[in-house]
Amino acid sequence: MKKRFLSILLCVSLVLMLSVTIVPGAAAKKLIIFAGGPAGGTFQIVGQAIATYKPVKALNYNIKVQSSGGSTENLRKVNSGKAHFGTVYSGHVFAGREGLMVNDSRKYTNVMAVSYLYEAPAQLVVLKGAGIKSVKDLVGKRVAVGPAGSGAFSYCEMFFTHLGVWDKIERNAISYNAGADALSNNQVEALWLFTAYPSSAVIQAATMNSIAMVDLDADAKKFGFYDKYKNFEPFTIPTSDGRYRGITEDVNSWRDTTLLVANTKTPDDLVFDMLKAIYTPEGLKWMVAQKKTFKAMALEKGLKGVATPLHPGAEKFWKEMGVLK
Predict the structure, then answer these.
(1) I need a surface site. Which of 174, 189, 204, 325 has the fewest CB within 10 A?
(2) What is the pLDDT of residue 198?
């Protein structure tokens, strides 16, 4: 009787062990980290839009979006493997790979391009009537320059340094939304952004104040910015459509391309299947429904602005689609 009891107990124990170790293991999804961006920016929306799309959620991966400072922080997170995916400006991907980042000579070679997303222009918002017509007019003034680690901060440092202004302003490294509040409360005289148009933070600032926007293309041409930094291009922000209240004419600026990137060790099948889900009529419609900026996304433009190596999963997809020969 005792032996029989022990045999039954052993069988029950084995069943319990198998149920604990095998069943959950078979059903568990691998955690994937997507480095997003700061509050009020488009980077965070990119990650959320992709991660919450049903066909992507149905994949055998659990994608979690983490907020971040933005482009340069994402570059470093993806390169180190702390994030599997991220949104990074093309200029930072290229500069990082070549060891040309500002005050950072390291080479970020574990970051690989996946696809083009949209183009982002520099935007400098001031209060109407403040007499600020050029970046040069900011000398001695307080400026919200974007969060530390963001593409906005990095490009502001690059542009203002080129114009000899960076060390002559009082810098406030805060988010876009916080910058809009600070402008409204007279805590700063200018709000710098590097993000897609329209920006919710600029809309917020325009709702609470009479604003103006500085012609950054004029400064870039006058002081030879394009000659030194050839990856940037002139860009006209279509502000005459009335989305920024009080701005009735288009504003000239300059832009960079925004890319979806992945770490070299991000699974090839995940990259391929994610692209296959997003780059369908339904997938692209979903992206536009999250933010109109994503109208720029299209199968034929999938590799626009990519000047660095592709992730193997992305290379397979774009070859299959006939975009990459």
Answers:
(1) 325
(2) 87
Instruction: Give the pair of three-digit tokens for residue 293.
Output: 């900026």
pLDDT (tens digit per residue) in 135-149: 999 999 999 999 887
User: pLDDT-based confidence at 38, cuts 50/70/90?
Assistant: confident
CA-to-CA distance for 197 and 83, rounded, in angstroms?
Answer: 26
Distances (CA, A) of 129 to 202, 206, 211: 17, 14, 8
* pLDDT reading at 18 higher than 80: no
Residue 318, amino acid: W
Rounded to two decimals, the pTM is 0.78
Contact 284, 278 (CB under 8 A): yes
How large a percentage of the chain has pLDDT more than 90?
76
